[in-house]
Design goal:
- The complex is a heterodimer of chains A (290) and B (349).
- Chain A is an all-alpha fold.
- Chain A has one domain.
- In chain A, 73% of the residues lie in helices and 3% in strands.
- Chain A is built from eleven helices and two strands, in the order ααααββααααααα.
- Chain A has a two-stranded antiparallel ribbon.
- The longest helix of chain A has 28 residues, at 2-29.
- In chain B, helix 1 (24-30) crosses helix 2 (38-61) and helix 4 crosses helix 10 (231-257).
- In chain B, the strands form two sheets. A two-stranded antiparallel ribbon of chain B has the order 1-4. Chain B has a two-stranded antiparallel ribbon with strand order 2-3.
- Helix content of chain B is 68%, strand content 6%.
- Chain B is globular, with a radius of gyration of 23 Å.
- Chain B is mainly α.
- Chain B has a domain at 63-266.
- The chains are: A mainly alpha (290), B mainly alpha (349).
- At the A-B interface, helix 3, helix 4, helix 9 and helix 11 of A face helix 6, helix 9, helix 11 and helix 13 of B.
Chain lengths: 290, 349
Amino acid sequence: MLEVTIIYGFVNSVILALVALGFGLTFGISGVSNFAYGALYVLAGYVVWIFINKLHIPFVVAACLGVVLTAFLGAVLYRFVLLRVRGLVLSEVIATFGVGLAILELFRCLGFTGFEYTLPVFTDGSILIGNTYIDHQRLWIVGIGVTLAVGLYFFTHHTKLGLAFRGIAQDERTALSLGINSDKIAEISVAFGAGLAALAAIVILPRGLISVNEGYDVLINAMAVCIIGGLGSTVGVVAAAFVIGYAQIISEALVGPHWKMIVSLIAILVILVVKPSGLFGKQKELEERI
Amino acid sequence: MQQTMPTAAGAAPARRRKERIDRGIKARSDDVFALTSYREMLYVAIPPAIPVVLLLVLPLILPIYWQKVLLSAAVFAVLAMSWDFLASVGMVSLGQALFFGVGAYVAGILDHYLGLPVWLSIPLGTLFGGLICTVLLLPVLRLRGIYFAMVTLVLPLMFERIIEATGLLGGTEGLTGLTSFPNPWIELYLIGTVVLLTLFGFRRLMTSDYGLVLKGIRDNDRSVMSAGLNIYWYKAQALFIGGAICAFCGAYMTHVQMFVGMPAFALDYSILPIATAVVGGMGTFAGSVLGAFLLVPLSEFLRGVGGWRTVLYALSLVGFIVLLPEGIFHYVRRKYHQFERWVGVEASS
């Protein structure tokens, strides 16, 4: 029992980190709100499903196309919606949230619900760790999640583009004076975030069905992880993912499966009341509260 | 285009700009409080009379089905005005459903478990709904902007899931078979009256000294603090006012539908009021009413197509916030008070 909890808690934590990385990159590191994140995640799932099942494209190609297409959509979202309300933070939130809502509810209206909407697993089978069976897909999730988290850390700390991402969130004017085109960088950041959402969807969704409601859950989980970890901190995202991941699995085992999401929601509330800048956040520690 | 128009500045290619000037009648009827003609009096009196007349007359002439549409438009108008009010105090909420749902459940509980009559459960639902929400949000009053918005987004979702998980208060089934209103006319005129009271009450409140403090909190909370005013106390009061009005809508809808359940916390009640207020025009309250009476009937036409309502709302929200952020009301008001003409611009160099 304990072993199962530890292993599945670990997998769940990596899933949360994976889901939150894209949101963290856009919202946390570059300071651009993209509340259509959950919708882009679900959209990527459906797009890849359509590529595979309707257009009969091989899985690997379909997955790559899905990621590129979602990233492109992210850039379009920035160019046509976000750019015009940039700087008005609440308009950013409302506009992107509206876009996400429109995408998700559109899928619901078009009837994209049912048991046939699943993505294929990468490799079939399972292995035994101790006394616990764990399927290959979850191992893939762990592998890709860890790689991405480490990659993102190095990307944001040791590449020019990554440093520019952080720069525009810290001080946009200074960034401009150093020759960083903040609109361009923000657009790339939204596109990268959307691409990461698609990647996360392709890796994670094979565990279950693609459903519209997943979009809302993903957004809440990503928000929870990013807020608790603190905006702008990759380490914080990983740490917070583990905190919430284990809390979810434990409460699921002890109380019931319904409580999984409630844990995330309560976590957001508690951290916003106690320490709005998050566990590892350094940005805007004073600005958002009086 | 530029070549063909008459040139005002001689041989140089004409540069022109649009000039907006107040209409004479506005200037005459605006500051001087001695209106001298019926034309001027009507100019001032007609715009505020439009909602009053419409809300009093429409219930009499509409068929039953469109009466229900009017009712839901009125409810969303009130929710949107409450959102607008909170937004003009600097508390932008992404979860009006919280206030709505709490009010609905309080009224439902009072009716279902205590058997209180309608005329008691709605006022109590309003009062306690407002109080409960204010107390819940007290710890986050110090947050502002996006962080406050996130809390309000999260709370109704959490309540929905807690009710689902614990099965309290009827769980997923909700509380059914509640008392309804004695007759549909009371139903319609009650909400109509509340729309008018909220509209004119809020407009008046925001121009009073009290409203000035509230606006000050939105614009620069620190300077209000340094004026020696306790902004948390003001924010709590504003939250109670805004919350209680939403809670009234919840309690009212509970008795109209004779049912209260998890849908009371649904995202619809959060996003529709925002869309309504943004489409109509923020900060004027009249815009919220206008928006509700445009969007709700419009979405009725799409009813046959399925659940497109939310899509329509979300898209119009995005469209307006990006393309016409001022909203319809500000646009119409400008056209009413001002006229525009092209004037030539002299070259500065």
